[in-house]
Write a structure and sequence with these properties.
single chain, 107 residues, mainly alpha, 87% helix, 0% strand, rod-shaped
Length: 107
């Protein structure tokens, strides 16, 4: 079965984009909004936690280092950004390889 026009367009697109999208800096830059979107509720939950249970808030604040929270939220955001974009890259690369194999099989 020959490849469709849509599959051919994807092959052309991915041949141009695959190297650029594999770079870590690109993955971080493009994926960072998703990472922040994932880490932001954690930060909000922590900051609003004092309204839920005041005794736990008092104990937590006596042993709390704000730098740990900043590093943790930043780490979560960066990890999610890179992980998500790497996963998407792997999916597109697999699809590209399947289309290439299908195209070469038809020739």
């Amino acid at each position: 079965m020959p490849i469709t026009e849509e599959e051919e367009k994807f092959i052309e697109y991915w041949e141009k984009e695959r190297v650029r999208q594999k770079r870590i800096f690109y993955q971080l830059w493009v994926g960072l909004p998703l990472g922040v979107l994932f880490a932001l509720p954690i930060l909000v939950n922590f900051l609003l936690g004092r309204f839920w249970y005041q005794r736990a808030d008092a104990v937590g604040n006596s042993q709390f280092n704000p730098m740990v929270l900043v590093v943790a939220v930043t780490g979560i955001a960066v990890f999610m950004a890179i992980f998500h974009k790497k996963f998407k890259w792997d999916q597109q690369e697999q699809q590209y390889q399947e289309f290439i194999s299908k195209r070469d099989k038809d020739r």
